Amino acid sequence: MKAALSVILALGIANTTAEAGPALDRIQSSGHIVLGHRESSVPFSYVLPDGKPVGYALDLCLKIAEGVRKKLKMNSLAPQFVPVTPANRIQMVMDGKIDLECGSTTNNADRREKVAFTVPHYITGARYLVRTDSGITELAQFEGKTLVSTKGTTPLKSITQANNERALHIHVVEAPDHAKAMEMLAAGQADGFVMDDVLLYGIVASRPDVAKFRVVGKFLTIEPLSIVLPKNDPELKALVDEEMKRLITSHEAVAIYERWFLKPIPPKNTALNLPMSYLLKDFWKYPSDQVPY
């Protein structure tokens, strides 16, 4: 029955059934869907001063949630928001504490052993945020200096590996979240902050002293960012993938992108002015959850 249902869902012609799979069954019986959000991953998923979670990835998740509601023929489906961190986000999905993780998480081979991903919503790469007066423009200039990154992220893993392989003697330190890493850089406790460049631009844009910082260097990594969902739940995955592809082909996802990357965003009402990259444009021509990383 489940195998047949998976095929039906994948074809996009399912209605609803008592055997909808573990996550869909729970969503239908409880009347809510649990969305994991970040606290400082601007503009993907972050919290406003009034405590409201917002962001590009969250908007996509809310659209997906509406697609789930329609497929399950529910009159209403209430989203519940649960904060997650880079360190616990994967485990929260694995433990069933959230249905979708709506943030800035990289789809890579290591994580695919534990969780599933839908079609990437952004493709970025790790670079370096420095103080403008530092004179640093590339990785080699961090030799003997301190670089901070966020615990549980691929940039932290990648810079640690590069540091060891190239014998750069960089002091690599972990911060619990992006906000703390930025605080360390601003206070002079670190000489650079290595993270996905789009997140660095977002973090700086929300500060009053934007001119004091700049993003530098070549890409250390290529990061396809995706919404995360439970592994081994083909019914949920088929439905989420179908809805994500619909959002892309209908250009609804493009409008959501423009809302968060080209127009003023809260709380400062500052625009990031980051047009869609050719990498994402090309990938969305034939949207797939398969990434070569």
TrEMBL record:
SUPFAM superfamilies assigned? Periplasmic binding protein-like II
- Keywords for the protein's UniProt record, in alphabetical order: Signal, Transport
The record places domain Solute-binding protein family 3/N-terminal at 32-264
- InterPro entries on file: Bact_solute-bind_prot3 (IPR051455), Solute-binding_3/MltF_N (IPR001638)
- Transmembrane helix among the record's keywords? no
Signal peptide extent: 1-20
Q: Does the keyword section mention Transport?
A: yes
**Domain of life, per lineage:** Bacteria
State the similarity comment: Belongs to the bacterial solute-binding protein 3 family.
- The name under which this protein is listed is Glutamate/aspartate transport system substrate-binding protein
